[in-house]
Structure formats: C-alpha cells, structure tokens
Amino acid sequence: MGACCLFNGNERILEDITMKKIALAAALSVAASTAFAGNISAPIIEAPIIVEEAKAGSSSSGILVPLLILAVVAAAAAS
Questions:
Q1: For position 38, what pLDDT does the model report?
Q2: Rounded to whole angstroms, what are the CA distances from 76 to 20, 65, 66, 68?
Q3: Which conformational region is residue 61 in: left (phi greater than 0), alpha (psi within -120 to 50 degrees), or beta?
Q4: What's 59's DSSP letter?
Q5: Res. 73 pLDDT band, cuts 50 70 90
Q6: pLDDT in the model for residue 72
Q7: CA–CA separation, 3 vs 44, rounded Å?
Q8: Helix, strand or coil for residue 27?
Q9: Which DSSP symbol is given to 41?
C-alpha cells in the first residue's frame, strides 16, 4: 500500500509541474501577442516632400543679356 501511495504522490507532483508549465506557456504567448500588436499612441506620419520645378523664363531672356553686352561694347567703341 505504501508503494501505491508513493506512486500517486509522484504522479500528482508531475501533474502539478506540467500544469504550471502549461500555464506559464499560455501566459507567455498572451504577453508576446500583445507585445507585437502595437501600442496605443498615434502613429507618426511624415509630411510628403513636395519639389517644385523652377518656372521657365521666356525664350528672349537667353538672348537679352548678350544683346545688352553687345550694345554696351558698341557704344564704347563708337565714343
């Protein structure tokens, strides 16, 4: 009778340890799932970068500067 009770006691201890391991695994899995779920703070959204193209000037502006230089040189040569 003593061997029977000893066996049942060891089985009970193993059963308690197994249940504690299962409870610990369940608690860790719940904690891990909430850790990866995100947080309650609002997400940070960066403003988009807007690049504006420079306005193209009129086609005569490329000719205007050389014509002014030519007029100044011609005026200097004439005097």
A1: 61
A2: 103, 17, 15, 12
A3: alpha
A4: T
A5: very high
A6: 92
A7: 67
A8: helix
A9: S
